[in-house]
Amino acid sequence: MTSKVSSPTEQADEAVVGEQRKPPGAKDVRRLDRVIIRFAGDSGDGMQLTGDRFTSETASFGNDLSTLPNFPAEIRAPAGTLPGVSSFQLHFADHDILTPGDAPNVLVAMNPAALKANIADVPRGAEIIVNTDEFTKRAMQKVGYATSPLEDGSLDGYNVHPVPLTTMTVEALKDFELSRKEAERSKNMFALGLLSWMYHRPTEGTEKFLRTKFAKKPDIAAANLAAFRAGWNFGETTEDFAVSYEVAPASKAFPTGTYRNISGNLALSYGLVAASRQADLPLYLGSYPITPASDILHELSKHKNFGVRTFQAEDEIAGIGAALGAAFGGSLAVTTTSGPGVALKSETIGLAVSLELPLLVIDIQRGGPSTGLPTKTEQADLLQAMYGRNGEAPVPIVAPRTPADCFDAALEAARIALTYRTPVLLLSDGYLANGSEPWRIPETDELPDLRVQFAQGPNHTLEDGTEVFWPYKRDPQTLARPWAVPGTPGLEHRIGGIEKQDGSGNISYDPANHDFMVRTRQAKIDGIDVPDLEVDDPTAGTDTAATTLVLGWGSTYGPITAAVRRLRTAGEHIAQAHLRHLNPFPRNLGAVLRRYDKVVIPEMNLGQLATLVRARYLVDAHSYNQVNGMPFKAEQLATALKEAIDG
């Protein structure tokens, strides 16, 4: 699935309110076409779990959705402080959507820090549900509130619902043999129950989840279930919530098929397993845990039944070294990391270039430099992926565009690595890794055939008639060298990082040979077969054809597409194209760029793709950049693109 199916235009951030209906004896129910909810609280309040459960139920209901988890890098920041705020934003709709939304229609604030950290994003008129129990004088002073925002009029422009969540949770659990502190931990489930009532979410999945999660602690399971049901019942009975809302399933947004909610890292994991099965090779992961890539290691460790072997190494260098060894041994080899880890792996990536072995290097980008912003997103590793090795060491680069597209990107990276015998860099990022959306589970006959042929015997005849094996004799179409599994009789050959002699693979310091090998390795990458770039331009060939092209890569796809939809709805003419292959570029990219007077490239860096495009094609591409650790907002991009069109 390379993109989401087009359907109704993504609207502005305000949810559209439809008809009201009030069955006899029931509260008002309003129909909306879309809603953006943000759960926010202390990093110990369980906001990620709450958001994940609400998302799972929303997916099972059939809505399209997009999520944005946002949490601190610290394992446990000081309680009640701004650096310790964790949030989870969910955008769900009855039509095709592309982003987690620019601004929440509903904010659930579990304490003063959560309110202060998020109120700037909340538009006037939105709903704010606050846990009044946490608005003590000390807690408010900790985040700089001189007076209570619940009483000083600063929230008069919002629909504020003060709810004593902690007190009500403790009261609901008074019959359980729990301490007050233990009971308070279930307040996130009370909030989840309230929001589930408010938006008519299914409850069976959450109840089953709680029973399973706490199967070894039945008292805790029962307490969380009681808190969840108490929150639902509170919404049903209180006068403060006079209206509930319905968002119908997105029944017309997707092709027929079986769908599930999936995050980018989970989709990548499944894509790697599928690639190994389609290649009929064992999958080997050599990895060192690093945020936000660790979930791939966690997930793949569960799939030994599919021939997956995972190795948690002592450091980044050991992880890629083990993976490269597995590639030499005939496995589909993978190493996962984030930007700082790519820097440590660079020498071994260069060795893989020299050995010409298939190896997948998956970089889940995060804010840098150095340790940077471990839990925030960025796209700033493109030039590192392109050039971050000593010598001329070209590596193909592939970038997924959505969480679900990570599955297909993994298959594509594996195709290139196996076909051309080369390491491949796959550039995802924290936004894709942790975000989620519906994914159509493909049929097995839709997956590519990735099977390879290992070398079986001699492939070269010397002048004296002796048949020998030359490890660097190449396929004339792909320039790939043969893949010889260790232990195959007669295929013994030398490996190492010193330059190889063309054909024989012997050590060579000959200047002409080195020049030839460098140019051959580059030609192999340049010759990789990648699809032409597709351009979304409804006005092409008309008298009012668009003169501005917006070009993107990676996770900017959703915000760019949402912004383009808004502009087209407003009558603007603008074309859009999105790159999956960043090395080599699609062969028609130059021709596409020359068709437009203006090219705008939005990136979550300081203009890395723009630098490559300007250098390669001599096109005056304009950068629009953001490096604040957060994804673009659709309205922000729409404004910038409108200025480009008018400029």
Task: Give me the secondary-structure topology.
Elements (H helix, E strand, L loop, with lengths): L16 E5 L6 E5 L1 E9 L4 H15 L2 E7 L14 E9 L12 E4 L2 H7 L8 E5 L5 H6 L16 E5 L1 H8 L7 H5 L2 H12 L5 H10 L4 H20 L5 E5 L11 E5 H16 L3 E5 L6 H7 L7 E5 L3 H13 L3 E6 L1 H17 L3 E7 L16 H6 L9 E2 L6 H16 L2 E7 H5 L1 E5 L19 E2 L5 E2 L42 H16 L8 E2 L11 E6 L3 H13 L5 E5 L1 E3 L5 H6 L3 E6 L4 H10 L4 E4 L8 H13 L1
Helix pairs in contact: 1-6, 6-8, 7-8, 9-10, 9-14, 11-12, 17-20
Give a written overview of the molecule.
The structure is a single chain. This protein is of the alpha/beta class and 647 residues long. Helix content is 34%, strand content 19%. The strands form 6 sheets. Strands 12-11-13-14-16-15-23 form a 7-stranded mixed sheet, with helices on both faces. The protein has a 6-stranded mixed sheet with strand order 4-5-3-6-7-8, sandwiched between helices. The two termini are 35 Å apart. Residues 1-21 have low confidence and may be disordered.
At a glance:
The protein is built from 20 helices and 25 strands. The chain is an alpha/beta fold.
The Cα radius of gyration reads 27 Å
Poorly predicted residue ranges: 1-21
**Mean of residue pLDDT values:** 94
Give the biggest beta sheet: 7 strands, mixed
Strand content: 15-25%
Helix content: 25-40%
Neighbour order of strands in the largest sheet: 12-11-13-14-16-15-23
Count every beta strand, where a strand is a DSSP E run of 2 or more residues.
25
Helix count from the secondary structure assignment: 20
Judging from the principal axes of the Cα atoms, what is the shape?
A: globular
Structural class: alpha/beta
- Cα-to-Cα separation, first versus last residue: 35 Å
